[in-house]
Design brief:
Strand order of the largest sheet: 3-2-1-4-5-6-7
Shape: globular
Structural class: alpha/beta
Bound molecules: nicotinamide-adenine-dinucleotide
CATH architecture of the largest domain: 3-Layer(aba) Sandwich
Largest sheet: 7 strands, parallel
């Protein structure tokens, strides 16, 4: 059912975005990759997806902090088949600082990449989706779009605001036939970014890798293991299939019950 659609996935050169790009390609979608990384590795990723799944896969290295580059990315994605049917706003930058010490330039860049770029891509995608009577926008928020942790003000604020963008988009598209916009709120996912944080924890506390993984999850009260990127990609696919056409404006947790149980007391 998704065969022949074109999906633009921002921040898809690694982590969850790369898993999403692979899932969309496997479902028969053409894909526009975006994000930073080593040129040869990105070309290997692009070529492998195209060859394995027989779809068109493009890459555009737009810096999402820059409006002209966001517009060029959208135009390039549209150039694949004449339409952007699926937009996944996934790219992220993160800073780790208290509010008092937060560098103003970091704040501006975080808002630009994590929130303003999704707004512009939504603005650019909607006219075509309305015209064709079919479109899917999936915004990747976080458990930190529902609650807060100290030292994460840019992330918490932009991930919360993405839920507002999701609802506003759903409100403006609900009469447009089969166009939906939903947000996904994952708990901790094992991506390169998480691996870096676990390695930092291991070094700071003198922990073995496995112990550091367990401690990382324990501090976040996430039971079991990390959420697998492939399972989040499956949820994205579901939100893009016709079966989910009546769901729009949602903020869907995929966090092993973390956000549902914040008020649970430790026993
Ligand atoms: P990641 O840091 O591994 O990858 C981020 C991607 O965004 C990379 O491809 C990077 O090149 C790209 N990017 C960063 N700045 C960019 C810019 N200015 N322009 C274009 N691309 C840019 O991230 P991840 O851990 O895979 O997370 C993916 C999404 O999932 C994010 O929206 C994140 O908030 C969300 N999420 C992740 C976790 C987790 O535990 N990893 C948990 C909850 C939510």
């Amino acid at each position: 059912m998704l065969t022949g659609k074109t999906a633009l996935v921002t921040g898809s050169t690694r982590g969850l975005g790369a898993a999403a790009a692979a899932a969309f390609a496997a479902a028969g979608c053409n894909v526009m990759l975006n994000g930073f990384g080593e040129a040869e590795a990105i070309e290997r990723q692009r070529a492998a997806l195209a060859e394995e799944h027989g779809v068109t896969v493009g890459y555009h290295g737009a810096d999402l902090a820059k409006l002209a580059e966001v517009e060029a990315l959208f135009a390039a994605a549209e150039g694949i088949s004449g339409a952007v049917d699926i937009l996944v706003n996934n790219a992220v930058i993160r800073h780790f600082s208290s509010i008092d010490a937060f560098a103003p330039a970091d704040w501006d860049r975080a808002v630009a990449v994590n929130l303003t770029a999704p707004f512009h891509l939504t603005r650019l995608a909607l006219p075509g989706m309305r015209k064709r009577g079919w479109g899917r926008i999936v915004n990747i928020s976080s458990v930190l779009g529902i609650g807060a942790r100290s030292g994460r003000v840019d992330y918490v604020t932009t991930k919360t605001a993405l839920l507002g963008l999701t609802r506003a988009t759903a409100a403006e598209t609900r009469g447009d036939g089969n166009v939906t916009c939903n947000a996904i709120c994952p708990g901790s996912v094992l991506t390169p970014n998480t691996e870096i944080k676990i390695a930092e924890l291991a070094k700071a506390e003198g922990l073995a890798p496995d112990a550091a993984r367990r401690e990382y999850l324990k501090r976040r009260k996430q039971p079991g293991d990390f959420i697998a990127p492939a399972r989040i990609a499956e949820l994205m696919l579901f939100l893009c299939r016709d079966e989910s056409r009546d769901m729009t404006g949602g903020a869907i947790p995929i966090d092993s019950g973390r956000s549902a149980s914040w008020l649970e007391e430790d026993t």
